[in-house]
Amino acid sequence: MSRPTPPTLPPYLNLDPEAAAKRLPDPIGTSRFAKAAAFCAKGREDLAQRGYAPDGEKRLRKFSTWEITKYLIPIAPAHLRRVLKANPDLPQGEGEGGSKWFTLEEVLALRQYFASEGVSTKEYLPYRPKGLPAKVVAVANFKGGVGKTSTAAHLAMSAALDGYKVLVIDLDSQGSMTSILGGKVADEWQTVFPLMAKDYAKAVVAENEVRVAAEQPEIPLDETLQEALKTSPQDVIQNTHWPNIDLIGAQLNLYWAEFQIPVWRMGLRSWPLWDGLTNFLQDEGILDQYDVVFLDTPPALGYLTINALAASDILLVPLGASFLEFDSTGRFFDMLYTTFASIEDGENTAQRAAGLPEIKFEWDVVRAIVTRFDASQQTDMANVIQAYFGDFMNAYRQDYTALVGQAGEQVNGIYEADYRDFNRDTYVRGRETFDRTYAEFKELLIGCWWRDAHMGDEQDG
After folding, report:
1. Cα(306)–Cα(301) distance, rounded to whole angstroms?
2. d(CA 156, CA 295)
3. Superkingdom, according to UniProt (predicted)?
4. Domain residues for 385?
5. What are the beta bridge partners of residue 248?
6. Total structural domains in the chain?
């Protein structure tokens, strides 16, 4: 008869303090952080190369006839082949027979052709009213890991595939969006930092003109501010491997803006620190050069995020279907109210005293988006979130699919992944997840534009 096996103790009982002490390393100084950072930088570079060409540059893959006719241009494959045969001056793609592959530049050229020559009832080009500025979209939440950057990146790529011209501004010093889009940022002077500095410097110049007239001492303009005044959009906007997505990237030094902005504000209390990004987009003609501007924000309600929110027309707030993320997002909305209401109250006291119009922050629309959704485990919680957020909530919940993880390993977006690397059904399901998210976003986008375009008509009526 065998003896009973004694019960196994939990792994945290009967630990030996002396043995534990022997496993510890020597005390760690600050220099060890530098070594760890260097290892991570090397690893990050090596991993990033997985999504790059052998020369270290990112390349956007080509798109097949199947993809173009299924997802991009509403025409039948046979009709596309007939049109290409009849118009040899159009991009012909690569490959033989019915299986041809086209660059996105070629797809955009085909879009333009069908928009001018095709059936008028079909949408070959996306809705974009003439004479109206680009819409600015901030993707924000101060809880990390909610799919913020992934959501912003895929919406930008979706809009680009749909035919829009897109600018992406990375405001997160971690630079994840910059990596996805293959951006190269040497220092803070290739980020939004000089744009914020330029806005402050312009305010100082205007203030000094008043002070000189009143024979008061001027506010000094240091070398950084003098250099910032020379900054132009061309200095910070870079092309990406997507022909219709441009980027203002980010890197670690951008974080210094969070410390510098309040210092500038103390130097000139009348400078509206929340308007720096807004003024850049408006004054430098950016809103006339693009259709949609996406702002990827840090996971914190700091000064850069405040600038992004103040500049945006549409605010998207990603969150997972869990209690903690729901709770955190509720606190995020509470902080948004506290922050912007306090700015309004403080500024409008002075505005009223000076007989000037009051300022008021407004957004065309705000939507929370459930990301990384698992219907088998999270449906009840998602329904609760939906009930409490009401009209702040997107109807569609963005599923987590195998395609998301596999594409992420290659430092690529879903739309950059070649469907031949996946099971066809897996690709179609994974792509549908982001297509449906984009469809709901696009409905918001074009609705906002339509309302803007017809607002004058309604007021006249």
Report:
1. 7
2. 10
3. Bacteria
4. 135-453
5. 169
6. 2
